[in-house]
Amino acid sequence: MSLLIRARKPLTSPWPAADPFLFCAYHLDAYPASDGAQGLPPAALAGRDPNSDFSRRDGFSTYHSQPIPGFPAHPHRGFETVTVARSGLVDHSDSLGATARYGQGDVQWLTAGGGVMHAEMFPLANADADNPLDLYQIWLNLPPEDKMVPAAFKMLWAPTVPHYRYKNAQGATATVSIIAGAYLPVEQGPELVPPTPPPSSWAARPDTDVAIWLVVLEPGASITLPAARDVRSLRTLYFHYGTQIRVDGEPSQGQELYEVDASSTVELHNDGADEARVMLMQGVPIRAPVSAMGPFVMNTEQELWQARVDFGRTQFGGWPWPEPGPVHPLGKERFALYPGSSEAEYPPAS
Q1: Which parts of the sequence belong to the Pirin C-terminal domain (predicted)?
Q2: CB within 8 A of 101, min separation 6: which ones?
Q3: Does any domain span residue 80?
Q4: How far is C-alpha 300 from the chain's CA centre?
């Protein structure tokens, strides 16, 4: 085994993660043409559990909602979600009164902090074509002192997310989408800096070296990822899409998780005939105890018990929307309306 690879194992779902991350859920759903009202047609829903469908039958799940798939109102406390929507749409609503529609490469960074309820629905925009959903949701822990900060979210619109592209001698291109953590190319070039996360995030601190990079490699493409800035960082690579890659010269054995030495550069090469993808998650560990149950991630069992009591008592502010899984009208453009604001934010021009 390469000296840079400290451990490797088959990839399971959700992806296990190293501190300061908790896990990543990857959703790749091949939704068919809609019923014309952003939902699945009756034939596609037949035989599915309307409340909990994770079957991936016919290449998709409906999760906790039908006919529009998604995750209706549910609570969180004590961590953050980073949702990367490469294709498809997500309609967000929350107990703060905020709402949004995003997709097409957008990223939503939600700090649950002391508590928030939100809904994540997947409206199907096309009635005469398929509706693929390609989405990552990464759970990032909060340090003990920030577990109870006020909830907040921020949109990282697709045009603001930097991308680094490298074409090798064979003419094949690798692209790195830089969601968190500045990227200084090994091959020379300017440093690429993504938008800042919410202020209470572990990733917002200058000394935590949090990085989230999505690497997409054409067949035959290669790239050398730069070393971490902090030798304390833990770095995990997730080969989750494609057939065959090499990590520091080591051929993959199916889709795998690699724990690698963050203090060194690491080379990736796509040996397969199709596109390959690798997600990098890296950061200085928080090194605090984790007590988690379902949607709550705290440090002690007492705090976890208190989270359940608080939610039962307050519903984290209550649910201001008429349905548990609100969706925006067909044809509504991407936007975000933040708590307390009457003016919507829209993606900047590309």
Answers
A1: 215-317
A2: 89, 90, 91, 92, 328, 332, 333, 334, 335
A3: yes
A4: 26
